[in-house]
Backbone:
């Protein structure tokens, strides 16, 4: 089986650029972006700043670099501390870059099932004693919307505002890891700018559900973005004729958000079908809000674990899924997954589960 004939549900990062993106890349006007000369990058940054309601935006190569630049920017003072969820992407999956490269102390708060951090948990961890040499200084709180590890959960405007108010009260900054912010905006039917109004910085990935081949955007004040540009350079993220990919990013921002709702419907359909399989633990209503579906295998009912289920789906049925623990699987929908694909996946999943029933 060739790789293109797999139904790939491992992530929304597997999305390939659309025909329109490839055409836009072919036709892109370019220049040296380190000199600030690339008209396509400038256009994309301008669009992003407007979309996110901030003074300025910056194109960076990846979501990881976007978050790192924002954290380093807010926490530039020696001995800074940030507060973030224990299940957040920055904490779990970005190689600890904020501490290893940025020397920023990470203070975690338990992430709730709905992706939120409890206000009282955040408040308890804010260092209020000034100038006591025992403690780092709290500079930043980070949120994630939608929340990857918590299954694509959406943070509401009201919740984000309540964290924003807390941060203001204590004079600390708020960063939003909005790798999938557009999924949240589409699901809530709110303007993304409203969602991040009280955030001092936001990162947004172009290469997940929005299907661009690479790139993320950072948005904030003009001063913040000026400093972010310096940080991007020292991290090796200053690219030259990068309008080639920014052109795809423009298509990603203009054409793809309207398709995300369908991805969410497909994820719900997938979850509803999975819930009917004996041995598959998932609550489609509670667990699935956007394009991420986690399910657990009941080891009392099914004799193979998540890796073996994934292996069987891949080898016997041409389906790729993610493994997130011994008994936990992860599936993401995206524009390359059709309703027919979802139905096929459910049929094959049923076959695998029935064959391995205890
Ligand atoms: C919530 C979240 N933030 C940041 C990232 C990092 O993005 P990248 O893989 O482009 O570095 C990811 C990637 O999956 C993510 O899910």
Residues:
């Amino acid at each position: 089986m060739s790789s293109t004939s797999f139904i790939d549900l491992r992530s929304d990062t597997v999305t390939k650029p659309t025909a329109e993106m490839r055409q836009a890349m072919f036709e892109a006007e370019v220049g040296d972006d380190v000199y600030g000369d690339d008209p396509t990058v400038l256009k994309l940054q301008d669009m992003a700043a407007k979309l996110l309601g901030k003074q300025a935006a910056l194109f960076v190569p990846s979501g990881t670099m976007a978050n790192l630049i924002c954290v380093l920017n807010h926490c530039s003072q020696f001995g800074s501390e940030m507060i973030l969820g224990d299940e957040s992407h920055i904490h779990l999956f970005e190689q600890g870059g904020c501490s290893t490269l940025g020397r920023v102390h990470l203070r975690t708060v338990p992430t709730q099932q709905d992706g939120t951090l409890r206000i009282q948990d955040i408040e308890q961890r804010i260092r209020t004693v000034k100038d006591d040499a025992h403690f780092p200084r709290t500079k930043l709180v980070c949120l994630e919307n939608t929340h990857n590890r918590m299954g694509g959960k959406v943070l509401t405007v009201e919740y984000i505002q309540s964290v924003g108010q807390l941060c203001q009260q204590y004079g600390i900054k708020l960063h939003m890891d909005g790798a999938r912010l557009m999924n949240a905006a589409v699901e809530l039917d709110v303007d993304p700018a409203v969602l991040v109004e009280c955030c001092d910085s936001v990162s947004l990935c172009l290469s997940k559900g929005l299907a661009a081949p690479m790139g993320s955007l950072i948005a904030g004040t003009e001063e913040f973005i000026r400093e972010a540009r310096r940080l991007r350079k020292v991290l090796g993220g200053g690219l030259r004729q990068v309008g080639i990919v920014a052109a795809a990013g423009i298509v990603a921002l203009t054409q793809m958000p309207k398709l995300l709702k369908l991805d969410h419907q497909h994820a719900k359909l997938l979850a509803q079908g999975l819930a009917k399989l004996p041995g598959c633990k998932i609550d489609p209503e509670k667990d699935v809000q956007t394009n991420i579906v986690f399910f657990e295998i009941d080891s009392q009912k099914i004799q193979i674990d998540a890796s073996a289920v994934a292996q069987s789906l891949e080898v016997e049925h041409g389906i790729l899924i993610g493994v997130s623990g011994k008994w936990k699987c992860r599936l993401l929908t995206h524009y390359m997954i059709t309703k027919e694909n979802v139905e096929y996946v459910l049929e094959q999943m049923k076959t695998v589960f029935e064959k391995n029933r205890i």
The first strand starts at residue 7 and ends at 8. Residues 62-64, 67, 89, 144, 148, 177, 179, 205, 207 surround pyridoxal-5'-phosphate (CB under 6 Å).
